[in-house]
Design a protein that fits this description.
mainly alpha; single chain; 7 helices
């Protein structure tokens, strides 16, 4: 009963924090979608660097077992997501950069996949991001919320807030949300992506 109450209490607080941050999540989704479309429609920026980076990543993954792939993907996503949240304290600049870069990269990769294998390949790409993308966008949104609080916007009710919050509150509740929501999503993403890559998906 105590364990059940523990989870109910924490997920209740996570839900409340989600509602408080909802417009920051919307901003993150909108910015990501915009740069995804740019990357898909105009895959010309930093093309050489991106292709070289993809080649290096594929070389790094070569020879890894399915379990090692899962661990590699999970740890990389965990680090990127945590940084997007925590470094939002710098007025939200890093979360914005992470959002733009990831949106453009995914759009670029999607375009390359479609050119090489046809539009139906998008159905093969979709499972790779079904858990990862929400986790990353939640982290970016929380980073934006943290940056807004540092910049004093939280006091004015930015993002639908109805009362003053402080940086400590946002950081504490953000960590709770990260542990109980983002972390499980990243675990699922690592398992699914690792297995799909390991099986040649």
């Amino acid at each position: 009963m105590k364990r059940r109450g523990f989870f109910i209490e924490n997920y209740s607080k996570c839900w409340r924090f989600f509602l408080e941050c909802r417009w920051f999540f919307v901003v993150a989704l909108g910015l990501f979608s915009l740069f995804f479309l740019i990357g898909f429609a105009f895959p010309v920026f930093f093309r050489t660097e991106i292709i070289e980076m993809i080649k290096m990543l594929m070389a790094e993954l070569e020879g890894l077992s399915t379990l090692e792939l899962i661990g590699f993907i999970f740890l990389n996503n965990l680090k990127a997501s945590f940084m997007a949240f925590v470094f939002g304290i710098g007025l939200g600049i890093l979360p914005v950069v992470v959002c733009i870069v990831n949106g453009y990269l995914l759009g670029f990769v999607a375009r390359e996949a479609v050119v090489q294998e046809g539009i139906l390949t998008m159905w093969k790409i979709f499972p790779h991001g079904i858990f990862e993308l929400p986790a990353v966008l939640f982290s970016i949104g929380m980073g934006l919320r943290l940056g807004a609080e540092v910049g004093g916007l939280g006091v004015w009710g930015f993002g639908g807030l109805s009362r003053e919050r402080d940086v400590e509150y946002v950081f504490r509740e953000g960590l709770r949300f990260f542990v109980f929501v983002v972390f499980p999503l990243l675990v699922m993403a690592g398992i699914i992506e690792g297995m799909l890559i390991g099986l040649g998906g």
